[in-house]
Amino acid sequence: MKLHHFALALSLSLFTTIAHSLKSSAVMPTILVTAEANVLQVSSTQEDDLLEQAGELLDLEKYSEALVIFDRVIKMNAQSPLAWMGRGYSFYHLKQYEQAIAAYQKAIEINPQWDRVWIELGNALDDSGKSDEALQAYDRALELNQKSVSAWYNRGITLSRLQRFEEALQALNQVVSLAPESELGWFRRGNVLVRLNQLEDAVESYERAIAINPQYEGAWVNKGLVMANLGQYEEAIAALQQVLKINPGNAQAQRVIQEIQKGLANNRTVAT
Predict the structure, then answer these.
(1) What is the CATH number of domain 27-130?
(2) N or C: which end of the chain has fewer CB within 10 A?
(3) Measured between alpha carbons, how far is 136 from 132 in angstroms, rounded to an integer?
(4) d(CA 155, CA 139)
(5) Model pTM?
(6) Where are the domains of the chain?
(7) Whether the Cβ atoms of residue 237 and residue 247 lie closer than 8 Å to each other
(8) For 129-185, what is each residue's pLDDT tens digit?
């Protein structure tokens, strides 16, 4: 059926777009002002105050301003892994990946046992086109902390982009095992299952994401597209109508519903 082939082509285009977005940071900005006794050195009160200021700026996404403060801390104490981590985090969000990589590497030089900075290094490497090195960084993080959801998640995203889908699925299986309430983990798992042509399993994965967050627009969209691929057109329309309840302006959902309805009407005409 032409309708079936249309839905398949559209869904694969969507999944490719989604797979290239949203890396998972191992560190929320406020972690940069939180002491971890087994990882971080104790800093002076003045350093703590400056790091707290920088953390607040990161929370506000004022990365250039935060960078100035991190540099002040580094001038005071060049052995502060928090400051180097913050410097890398700031550069990363300013899309200055080489500077971010250098800062993360300095933090690792000071404290190579900090799994979180290995993950951030992996993200910067991956976004600068160094996927193999990124995977090595994620693997190092997992050597230090086998239960790191962020490391498994980002490893899965990188492997998916490299079209190593079986390995990506293994990584994302770890994500949903360790964090069964991760809507993003289930969503990404569904995307990889589509690429492996395991469509029924993909639907189940999207449904898990939806159960966690019923307003998850992307999961409803992808569920609808996969249902169309499976020839379950009424279910596909129902899912896409749910998308429009969440976001009435979703032009893609509107377009696909119209195409499905048109195809169904044509099929009924031919049948008669």
Answers:
(1) 1.25.40.10
(2) C
(3) 6
(4) 8
(5) 0.84
(6) 27-130
(7) no
(8) 999 999 999 999 999 999 999 999 999 999 999 999 999 999 999 999 999 999 999
